[in-house]
Amino acid sequence: MTKSALITGITGQDGAYLAKLLLDKGYKVHGLVARRSSDSRWRLREMGVEGDIVYLDGDMADACSVQRAVIKSAPDEVYNLAAQSFVAASWDQPVTTGIVDGLGVTHLLEAIRQFSPHTRFYQASTSEMFGLIQAERQDENTPFYPRSPYGVAKLYGHWITVNYRESFNLHASSGILFNHESPLRGIEFVTRKVTDAAARIKQGKQQELRLGNIDAKRDWGFAGDYVEAMWLMLQQDKADDFVVATGVTTTVREMCQIAFEHVGLDYRDFVKIDPAFFRPAEVDVLLGNPAKAQRLLGWKPKTDLQTLIRMMMDADMKRVAKE
Hey, is 122 helix, strand or coil? Predict the structure, then answer.
């Protein structure tokens, strides 16, 4: 029988890659989409799946619309990818971030508990919950210490998922995903900010790139690899929480070097440090230990950072040339 899946946040980077993955596996895919005046489906068009999805109007802040989406889609699997996911913006919109990234998870879990308790649930948790790291490499047992409203809100979403799993026996898993990027990443995120700027500078459309803490270290992977881990979690007999990461850390500085070198430039000639881009509370390093995901899910990342950045650079070079 055809499986049914509901994806919240389907118009985002992860939603587009996950929708393509599930459609390729024969799922009927529903997407929860909030009303927006701007074009929010461009990523789905890029993946060639825009016309293959059943769209449902709804908003994570509105419990009634979330309930309707669950009832209408009758899902075997729900993937909660909806979030205010830009860390810097969470300082400007802490309440909105708390409602969408925290309370919204409860709306969805409660709808599943009441109307579809057989449904398997995936919660998109984040490495930002580790924040001020309490261990050199972070795994499922590392204590959390979030350093932004985004991290705090996501931690609520994570723990409410654990509570519903343990209290109501729901098949509810959380993927603690470290940074994952792609050509579909929003321009406000540092990886796309770098690749877009390198492309524009190469083509004479920009003179410099202003960044904050370029010595911050992150564990970067490819979003297309990471959505496979999401799906694998919901195929397990037992729900659980999993760190999804490459296990390799790289500085923003090194990432800039890879991007600019790909187009024959030296990043040091163009990157300027701007104190305005530093966080109120910095997260200096995040490095995941994906051993559990490798052992129990059989998942490993396929794409290294150099390949990923070059993929993004090629896409941005083509896009900027057409502007």
Answer: strand
> pLDDT per residue over 147-194, tens digit each?
999 999 999 999 999 999 999 999 999 999 999 999 999 998 999 999
Assess whether 231 and 207 both reside in one domain. Answer: no
Q: Which of 27, 150, 156, 267 is catalytic?
A: 150
Which residues constitute the domain of residue 279? 185-219+248-286+303-321
Task: Tell me the average pLDDT across 28-47.
Answer: 91
Residues 26-38 as b/e (b if ≥16 CB within 10 A, e otherwise) read ebbbbbbbbeeee
Catalytic residue among 11, 97, 106, 126: 126
pTM of the shown model: 0.95
With CA atoms as reference, report the closest residue to 60 among 22, 12, 26, 18: 12
Is 128 a residue of the active site? Answer: yes
| Active-site option among 77, 128, 181, 228 | 128
Active site residue 50: no
Give pLDDT tens digits for 61-78.
999 999 999 999 999 999
